[in-house]
Design goal:
By secondary structure, the protein is mainly α. Among the domains are: about 210 residues, no CATH class; about 80 residues, no CATH class. The protein is built from 21 helices and 7 strands. Strand 2 and strand 3 form a beta hairpin.
Length: about 425
């Protein structure tokens, strides 16, 4: 499997990460950090998917650094699975809990109002063809939806390690944000399901086969596991206020704990028994001890540093960040082109590429346009051929054994030529070396 970063490179990238002021977002220095974080994110996913040593997680834990919303939440989804990552985050977990609450509340609200995006993210080609405000808004809504889904994963991992975190984190989830009731809303509305026909799986809306319609998705399982942790762990039960409102909300879960669901997640049988007991009893109210509650450090610092400066920051951003010169745009394009290496990016895609000729799994791509994949299989082609250097057949009139790429070339040639010319033109305009 291709590698994005070596261990030493990753360590250098993480050590170079620095706190950015709100004013500097979008600056060249910010873009450089964005490039570093994108590479770290890709390497973390590659290591996790291949069950290799997750040295990116280890470095973040040991060096204590961690920024760029969509990329960072993706990186957190990978590394927060491990208990030591939650412990190393320290007081910053409070900010992360607040962040997850904002995203999940937004997700639940949009689901209730029917505002969940109905399609996949628009590709760069579609954006360049249309570029309307509506399309950009649709792209923004879809990105927000994807970020919220990943925030659910992060929250689930935090609840898994709740015993090793501070009392302030527990209080934040149960008392300040009433996270169990937020999760009940997600169970009721299932924003990642579109009826029984489509589910949001691996970053895309996918049609569900009839035999899989009752199967729980990854996101269903994460909501249930988070509820299980927050309601059944002893520390949580002592802290949570089972008042009449919270009790009525939690009892709604009984209608969703069917035999089909419990067969897939047997641990939910304990939750079902707890809810049955909750329906006929009134748990003791939590003790009202005197607690000095911590404030979310990151959020609080941002507000304090930038108070009464918002208009000045916006004015600076308009003139400096949103008005780049042609040379700055070319430099950004060049750096991003180097960051998003096609060979590495293919390893991050759940669906393996298909051969353009026979449909088998593709193992190599067209070297000219980089847009079509082919397998290594040889197929019998019953045509007269004497061109041995093209198809490998030595005998005229024999059934020639030919690779899919050679067989598919007459059909692929026109499209290949157009794509290659377009890429070359773009590279010439931006002065990017291939």
């Amino acid at each position: 499997m291709d590698s994005v970063l070596l261990h030493g490179e990753a360590e250098g990238y993480i050590q170079s990460l620095e706190k950015m002021s709100l004013r500097d977002i979008g600056s060249p220095r910010w873009f450089r950090q964005h490039e570093y974080i994108e590479k770290l994110n890709m390497q973390a996913i590659l290591n996790a998917s291949a069950n290799q040593e997750e040295f990116i997680k280890d470095l973040f834990v040991s060096l204590g650094k961690i920024h760029h919303e969509a990329t960072i939440i993706n990186l957190l989804e990978t590394i927060m699975y491990h208990k030591e990552s939650s412990e190393a985050a320290g007081d910053s977990v409070l900010d992360l809990v607040d962040y997850c609450h904002r995203k999940l509340t937004l997700l639940a609200g949009r689901s209730v109002s029917g505002e969940i995006p109905s399609g996949d993210r628009i590709t760069h080609t579609q954006l360049s063809d249309t570029g309307s405000v509506q399309d950009l808004q649709r792209q923004s809504d879809m990105l927000e939806f994807e970020i919220s889904i990943k925030a659910l994963s992060v929250l689930c991992y935090i609840t898994d390690h709740i015993e090793s975190l501070s009392l302030s984190v527990l209080s934040r989830m149960l008392c300040t944000h009433n996270m169990p009731c937020v999760l009940v809303q997600l169970v009721e509305n299932c924003p990642w399901n579109r009826g029984t026909l489509e589910k949001y799986i691996e970053g895309r809306w996918r049609t569900v086969l009839p035999e899989d319609q009752l199967k729980l998705s990854k996101h269903d399982g994460q909501v249930w596991m988070a509820l299980l942790n927050l309601l059944l762990k002893p520390d949580c039960q002592r802290k949570y206020d089972f008042n009449s409102f919270n009790k009525s909300q939690l009892l709604k879960l009984r209608g969703f704990l069917t035999e089909v669901v419990i067969d897939q997640l047997p641990n939910l049988l304990d939750l079902k028994h707890f809810l049955s007991q909750l329906a006929v009893t009134d748990p003791a109210a939590p003790k009202k001890d005197l607690i000095l509650e911590q404030v979310p450090e990151i959020w609080n610092n941002i507000v304090m540093e930038n108070s009464n400066k918002w208009k000045a920051i916006a004015k600076y951003q308009v003139t400096q960040v949103f008005n780049p010169s042609e040379s700055e745009l070319r430099e950004q394009a060049s750096r991003l082109a180097q960051t998003y290496n096609l060979d590495v990016m293919e390893n991050l895609i759940p669906d393996k590429p298909k051969c353009g000729a026979c449909g088998r799994t593709g193992v190599k791509r067209c070297s000219r346009c980089q847009g079509e994949w082919y397998c290594n299989s040889l197929h019998r082609m019953f045509t007269a051929c004497t061109t041995t250097h093209v198809c490998g057949a030595a005998d005229e009139g024999a059934g020639a054994l030919t690779e899919c790429q050679v067989k598919h070339w007459p059909k692929h040639k026109p499209a290949c030529k157009l794509m290659a010319e377009a890429i070359q033109k773009l590279q010439e305009e931006l002065n990017i070396s291939s």
